[in-house]
Amino acid sequence: MISIDFNRVRWFWLDLDDTVWNFESNSLKSLAEIYESHSLDRFFESVDCWRECYMRHNHALWEQYNIGGITRDFLMRERFTRPLIEAGCDSDTVEELCRKLHFDYLDRLGRYPDLVDGARELMEVLQSKGYKIGILSNGFKEVQYRKIESSHISHLVDCVVLSDDIGINKPDRRLYDHALVKAETTARESVIVGDNLSTDIAGGLNAGWQVIFYDRGKREVCSAPEISRISRLSELTSVVAEQLGPDDDSHSEL
């Protein structure tokens, strides 16, 4: 259910990975490619074993990174080091492969254009209604801008704010405050749409923004059950399509 005050919203801020850009699908493809190109069948019995091992370690490292427990360089290195060590690779092989895998993975990842179902339609409707669209992401600048370009949504985005801009991650409200300064707007006029309760939604609430939790059908339990929640982006698109838009004369009192 969506219960935000559209009369005061001018900016829709969207999380990038798995809210707009289909990280899950694109990552699986990239991991399969580097499995083949780097002959990782030497260490993992199948591509599925490789991807499961990598994603397990990567997810755990990202959880630490999002709360400031580790640095970006540590994450980048360890997310390949740990799967290789678990697979029994010797230290020389690990050191040789990790740097190659890091650059190759990011290069391949940034080429894929797949978006989450309904993402493009949502952004097009938001733009047609006169809303500004921002991207607010914890991702690395080396690849996030390429994702936007490769998926051909640059013309739909008015502002991109990455954690790399200031070295601070969601949910820290300082990243949200930085986004407001960059976009020359206010918390009152901003709403964030994201699929992560502990980063996107918790950070938005703490910064005084309206929030929409994109649950992706997982039915996650949250401590604030009254927040707006959708399981498909098309739900939000339908609601936005019915709005007058922030530049309509009926909003002149704002």
Describe it:
The chain is α/β, with parallel strands linked by helices. It has helices at 23-37, 47-66, 72-86, 91-109, 119-128, 141-150, 173-183, 197-206, 233-241, and strands at residues 11-14, 132-137, 159-162, 190-194, 210-214, 228-230. Helix content is 47%, strand content 11%. A 6-stranded parallel sheet has the order 3-2-1-4-5-6, sandwiched between helices. α1 (23-37) packs across α2 and α3 (72-86) crosses α4. It is elongated.
Which labels suit this protein?
single chain; alpha/beta; six-stranded parallel beta sheet
Summarize the helix and strand pattern as letters: EHHHHHEHEHEHEEH
Largest sheet: 6 strands, parallel
Residue stretches low in confidence (pLDDT < 50, at least 5 long) are 250-254
What do the pLDDT scores average to? 92
Number of helices: 9
The Rg value, from CA coordinates, equals: 19 Å
Strand order of the largest sheet: 3-2-1-4-5-6
- The SS-based structural class is alpha/beta
Strand content: 5-15%
What fraction, in percent, of the residue positions are helical? 40-55%
Terminal-residue CA separation: 25 Å
Q: How many individual β-strands?
A: 6
Shape: elongated
